Each structure stands twice: as structure tokens, then as C-alpha cells.
Automatic annotation (TrEMBL):
Keywords: Aminotransferase, Pyridoxal phosphate, Transferase. Pfam families: Aminotran_3 (PF00202). Its cofactor is pyridoxal 5'-phosphate. Pathway: Amine and polyamine biosynthesis; ectoine biosynthesis; L-ectoine from L-aspartate 4-semialdehyde: step 1/3. Coiled coil: none annotated. Belongs to the class-III pyridoxal-phosphate-dependent aminotransferase family. It is an enzyme of class 2 (transferase). Its EC number is 2.6.1.76. GO terms for biological process: ectoine biosynthetic process. This is Diaminobutyrate--2-oxoglutarate transaminase. It comes from the Bacteria.
């Protein structure tokens, strides 16, 4: 078959997406090809072209595509006729995941959290957290932050900042109040006196909140990094005023910023933590809501979901925790070193390119463009050169990097080289 014939066949085969799939699809528009196989940090299309993946399933593939250890655990489980769908029934797979979570994550950090399986996605975890906070406190209002992203279902969307996503709800999004995230005003130190004042002021119009929900690093919001001292001040305020603190670690948890939980650096202990994406290890749907033991006021069946018992995901989650988060783990140090490598490369790039800066923590790093159009152009050129990276931020002005935590030094060098060349080309 000639090249022209192959192209014609590909176009014909792909017409099904245009004809049948909803216009809501997004990533397929920025990466106009059809993928077929993947391994480690690489994903391949049906024409055999290889792409270095610095997107990693929006952070759901911290251990890379088809990680061999996790894959073998999954294959063994499936071929052994292990339970696939279990609702919230007791299964061996769930027991072993809970044991691994306790041994490798919770106990070493002195965290006495109960674990809820709310459903398969991050927004399910957030919905459960918001509902629980309201049930525990008897209050309705939730404090969220500018540029936050917490999910696309109505409760999670009410505490999300993006106007385009909020508009999709089609109804008023109520019982939530946005407040400025750290550095929102460009470097002004925030000590939260304003928050306490409006809480005490009967004329402020602010209902006493049940909880505050926060991301320590806002990924979709543009890789906005909260300072440790800001997070500590927020936690202290919540403790003083009997307000529950929810940390959304859906994208930034499971080692993305270095430590297993992104809030560890600040030395805080949230009342509630939401986890999804890479908690499943292999990219399979799984979400957890963790909360302090005294907050477990649910009655049986009060919050449920058909697919909260995804046992194959329990298996790969356990394998990931055992393999990467045991007592001898080197992953946090490796992630910090790789993050520093990206920062150094971005420092060099920003120094020689007008209108470019950067920010991030660990292996979530953002290249920030004064001209928002430049970010999408850089991602487009990078795609042509074999690199997947997405944009984020309120104006899509940030090229956000989320490579697998298992990415090699050579792969990092290659990807950063492609990105640098694309940036110089766009900004020159």
C-alpha cells in the first residue's frame, strides 16, 4: 500500500469519530492521530509514529503506560478468574489493597484515616467529601479558591473556578464561595485576616462554611503552587474556626509533587483527602476519599455507586503501592531530582526567550507564556515533533508537563529539547 493509500485509509477509518462521537471531545483535537499501543513513557499511533508522553493520562499514569509489574499483577488476577465487579462487598483484592495502603502510606505518616470507595473517578471522590463535610457540620457553604478545578459533576463544579466549565452546568452553582488562592494578587503576603474578619462580621454575607477545599498545586488552573506557609496558615485557621479542611489530591497525589501526598511538605493533616487518577496505578478507574476517623458518620448505603468496587483496579493499586511506596522507596528523591532538572532547563529557556517564565513542584511543571496563543502553538509544534504536552490555566497560557514519575533522564532530555526548540520557534 502506498503512502497516499495509507493516508486515505486512515482518513476513512477516522471518520467514525467525526460522524458518531460527540463534539465535546477535546484532546483528540489537539493531537489529531489515532493511538494504538503504549509502553513506559511512549505512546504510538497506528501509523507507527512514536510520541514521548509528558501528559500521562492527565496524571493517571504516574508509573507509565503498561507498567510491567502492574500489568503482570492484573493479568494474573484476570486469568485466575478474580472478582471484577464487587460493589462494596468484601473481596480479597480489596482487603489486600487496604492492607497495603495502611502499611505503605497511612501508618508511616501517622495518619488515622478511614477509607471510602466513592466511585471510579476524582469527581466522585470530591462529591463524597463535600457531602460528608456538610453532613458532619450541618452547614451548607464551601470555601473554594480562584482557578480551582475539582471535577465536572454539579457539586464539584460548584467549587471549580473555570467559567467555561461552570457555564456547562446550565443552572446556578450555589453554596460555594471562591476566595483568592496563594499569590493571586501577585506576591502580596496573605495572612487570612480577611477570612476571619468576614467570618465574624454578621454583615459580610458569608455563611459559616462547612469546609474549605484546596489543591496544593492547581494543575488545571495553570500550575499555581501554594507556599507551605500559606497552606499551614489555612490549616490553622480552619482548625481555630471549626471548619473542615479538604485537600484535593486527585492529580497531585500519589507522588506527583515528590511525597505521596502533596500536603506533606507543608506538615499539615487535612480532615478529608480526595484521591483518584494514579491511585489505581495502571490507569484504571479508582477513587478514594480519606477522612479522619471521627468524621465517619455515614449510615450504610447513604452514599454509594455501582462501580465503586473495581477489583482489577484494587489489584494494580496494591501492586503500585507495594512496588513504589514501601519503606525503601527512592521515588520521592528521584521525582525531586527530575523536577529540578526541568526547572533548570526552564530557567535557561526563560533567560533567552522573551515573555516566558515557569513554575511547579516535583514532576508537575508549567512553562508560562505572556501571550496565551504561544502555549497552544508550542504544544502543536511539539506534537509534530513527537511530544505530547497539554495547556492549562484560565487562558490556556501554560504548557503543563506531567511526565510519568518513571520517566528516564534520557527521555526527559529529549522531551525538554523538543519543547525548547518549539518555544524558541514560536517566540522568536
Amino acid at each position: 500500500m502506498t503512502t497516499a493509500e495509507k493516508a486515505a485509509k486512515t482518513t476513512a477509518d477516522n471518520s467514525i469519530f467525526e460522524n458518531l462521537e460527540s463534539e465535546v471531545r477535546s484532546y483528540s483535537r489537539g493531537w489529531p492521530t489515532t493511538f494504538t499501543t503504549a509502553s513506559g513513557s511512549w505512546i504510538r499511533d497506528e501509523n507507527g509514529k512514536e510520541f514521548l508522553d509528558f501528559f500521562a493520562g492527565a496524571g493517571a499514569l504516574n508509573y507509565g503506560h503498561n507498567n510491567p509489574v502492574l500489568k503482570q499483577a492484573l493479568v494474573d488476577y484476570i486469568t485466575g478468574d478474580g472478582i471484577t465487579h464487587g460493589l462494596d462487598m468484601n473481596t480479597v483484592a480489596k482487603r489486600e489493597l487496604l492492607e497495603s495502603l495502611q502499611t505503605n502510606v497511612l501508618a508511616p505518616r501517622g495518619l488515622d484515616y478511614k477509607v471510602q470507595f466513592p466511585g471510579p473517578t476524582g469527581t466522585n471522590s470530591v462529591e463524597a467529601a463535600l457531602k460528608l463535610a456538610r453532613k458532619v457540620t450541618g452547614r451548607e457553604s464551601i470555601i473554594s479558591f480562584t482557578n480551582a478545578f475539582h471535577g465536572m459533576t454539579l457539586g464539584a463544579l460548584s467549587v471549580t473556578g473555570n467559567s467555561m466549565k461552570r457555564a456547562g452546568a446550565g443552572i446556578p452553582l450555589v453554596h460555594a464561595t471562591p476566595m483568592p488562592f496563594d499569590n493571586y494578587f501577585g506576591g502580596v503576603t496573605e495572612d487570612f485576616q480577611w477570612f476571619e474578619r468576614v467570618l465574624d462580621d454578621s454583615g459580610s454575607g458569608l455563611n459559616r462554611p462547612a469546609a474549605v477545599i484546596v489543591e496544593t498545586v492547581q494543575g488545571e488552573g495553570g500550575v499555581n503552587v501554594a507556599r507551605a506557609e500559606w497552606l499551614r496558615a489555612l490549616a490553622e485557621l480552619c482548625a481555630r474556626r471549626d471548619i473542615l479542611l479538604i485537600v484535593d489530591d486527585v492529580q497531585m497525589g500519589c507522588g506527583r509533587t515528590g511525597n505521596f501526598f502533596s500536603f506533606e511538605e507543608a506538615g499539615i493533616v487535612p480532615d478529608i483527602v480526595t484521591l483518584s487518577k494514579s491511585i489505581g496505578g495502571y490507569g484504571m478507574p479508582l477513587a478514594l476519599t480519606l477522612f479522619k476517623r471521627e468524621l465517619d458518620v455515614w449510615t450504610p448505603g447513604e452514599h454509594n455507586g455501582t462501580f465503586r468496587g473495581n477489583n482489577p483496579a484494587f489489584v494494580t493499586a496494591k501492586a503500585a503501592l507495594d512496588t513504589y511506596w514501601g519503606p525503601d522507596t527512592t521515588l520521592p528523591a528521584e521525582t525531586a531530582a527530575k523536577g529540578a532538572k526541568i526547572e533548570a532547563a526552564f530557567d535557561e529557556l526563560a533567560a533567552k526567550t522573551t515573555g516566558v517564565s515557569h513554575r511547579g513542584r516535583g514532576l508537575v511543571q508549567g512553562l508560562v507564556f505572556e501571550d496565551p496563543d504561544h502555549a497552544s502553538k508550542v504544544c502543536s509544534i511539539a506534537f509534530d515533533e513527537g511530544l505530547l504536552a497539554e495547556t492549562s490555566g484560565p487562558s490556556d497560557e501554560v504548557v503543563k508537563l506531567l511526565p510519568p514519575l518513571t520517566v528516564t533522564e534520557d527521555e526527559l532530555d529529549r522531551g525538554l529539547g523538543i519543547l525548547a526548540e518549539a518555544t524558541v520557534k514560536v517566540c522568536s
